[in-house]
Amino acid sequence: MYQTVWVVTTPSSMAYLGIYGWRKRCLYFMLIGLLCLLVVNFVLTLWLIKVMGFSVDGLGELKILSGGVKLSSQATFFGSLICSSIFSHIGRSVTFASQQNFTVKTRNDEGRISSGLYIDDTKITTQAAQFSVSDLRGRNLMTVDNDKTVIGVDTLRVSGNGGAFFDGSIQTPILENFPGKDLRFESPTRRLQMFGGEGVSLESRAGDVNLTSLSDFKIESQEGTIRFVASNVYLPALKTFQSHRGHISNHHKTSTIFQLCVCTDGKLF
């Protein structure tokens, strides 16, 4: 048995769905604010693209090429720069500037540092197994390694007022002074020795040659002779023999010519 129930509603009890009043106004304000925010973001994006120079080729002055990147202005690196080669634009130079120091390092196949160049505000340091300097024709000018230093130039000139100091020996075919300047060899506290396989030549083409010694000065020839080839040979400080005879003629008193005698020990007087 079924029963039917009828519900009767009146207009005063009907419910209406929707947003009205202050809620509707707040929703409109939110939509307008979001729209303005989207417009501002879009304008800022276009401005950044314009300022930064974004394009399909790269970012501003930085162009991405098939073999690397191309930079047409200055660049600042806050970290390390790792690259195989750096080239400048045609007709322009490359300048590297650093606030404290500039370091260039190379590594071998094992990843270890094999050589490096360090430049700071006080010194320049090079670390390598061999240091070489060559000219444009590829001729070696200077080579430095652990064993020796080779100078390949035609003339090595030392222009300092103090001269050159060597702790060891020097091997060279010729030592020549500047035109109009004196050439001097000095050993203040030790001996000065000169050796030549076929001879030692001291020559002055426009001046004197002075040999000064505090104590003895020895000239020795083991198998040959000692020759003084000159028009005049002077021995001004050589001692003369004083005669003890009572009668000496006036001729001998005024004479300035003496005989050169040799003692048994080789002394001249």
Task: Indicate the topology.
Elements: H1 22-52, E1 58-59, E2 62-64, E3 69-71, E4 102-107, E5 113-119, E6 124-127, E7 131-134, E8 140-144, E9 149-151, H2 250-253
In short:
Helix content is 13%, strand content 14%. The chain is an alpha+beta fold. The longest helix is centred in the first third of the chain and has 31 residues, at 22-52.
> What form results from the Cα inertia axes?
rod-shaped
Strand order of the largest sheet: 1-2-3
Q: What is the helix content?
A: 10-25%
How much is the radius of gyration in Å? Answer: 49 Å
Strand content: 5-15%
Q: Structural class of the helices, strands and pairings? A: alpha+beta
Count every beta strand, where a strand is a DSSP E run of 2 or more residues.
9
Structural descriptors:
alpha+beta; 3-stranded antiparallel beta sheet; single chain; 269 residues; 13% helix
Structure report:
This protein is an alpha+beta fold and 269 residues long. Among the domains are: 16-73, no CATH class; 95-139, no CATH class. It contains two helices and nine strands; from the N terminus they run αβββββββββα. The strands form three sheets. It has a three-stranded antiparallel β-sheet with strand order 1-2-3, with no helix packed on it. A three-stranded antiparallel β-sheet has the order 4-5-6, with no helix packed on it. A three-stranded antiparallel β-sheet has the order 7-8-9, with no helix packed on it. Strand 4 and strand 5 form a beta hairpin. The model has no long low-confidence stretch (mean pLDDT 77).
